[in-house]
Amino acid sequence: MRILIVEDELDLQEAIADGLRIDGYAVDTCDDGETAYDLLYEVNYDLVVLDLNLPIMDGLEVLEKIRDERPELKVLILSARSNVNDKVKGLDRGANDYLAKPFDFAELEARIRNLLRRKFVQESSMLSSGDIKVDLSKRIAFVNKLEIALTKKEFALLAYLLLHKDRVISQEELIEHVWDQHADSFSGAIRVHIATLRKKLKTVLSYDPIGTKIGEGYFLSSDKDGDVRA
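The structure assignment produced for this chain is given below.
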């Protein structure tokens, strides 16, 4: 999942971004409302963590623009404005959640997980397809009830494929949602990570569960005899 952190306290911005990257999220950052609006216009984020006290363009103005143009985008306000009136104002203008500073990072993680599950109408933190299961809360993947060791990027790829298991996912979409703003779309990173993920899954399953539709992208397959050639 790809998240934008909009926070003008740079130490806090960096701490949040580093923590979420450790969790396996692709994270972009900026420190003013105008840049945030430009990024939101260019990139299809899954969630935005938005401060309110921002230079150039206030966070509430950014929120209003998001709701006008991207009504489905999840927004978590993270602000030092902690009184009830500020919370009501933020929620009334379309924020999905509001967390006051100072905060516990574990609570921020939990709120983000909750919002992302809500986006994909996923009530449980467990995703599955055939013999493959992923626990989003614990960030653990299982195949045939056996825990499988994945890198953060492999886990993120598998989770995204499971969240969209009924359709083919293009390389461009994976770049948008699993990598951050520093990703090189021509680097071949997706092919490399898909290849290593396939190898690990195939070792346990004895077949390749990731199919490729030539010219379109990747999909999860439970068909042991299916065409899954890259």
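Interim note for the steering committee: The mean pLDDT is 86. The chain has two domains: 2-119, 126-220.
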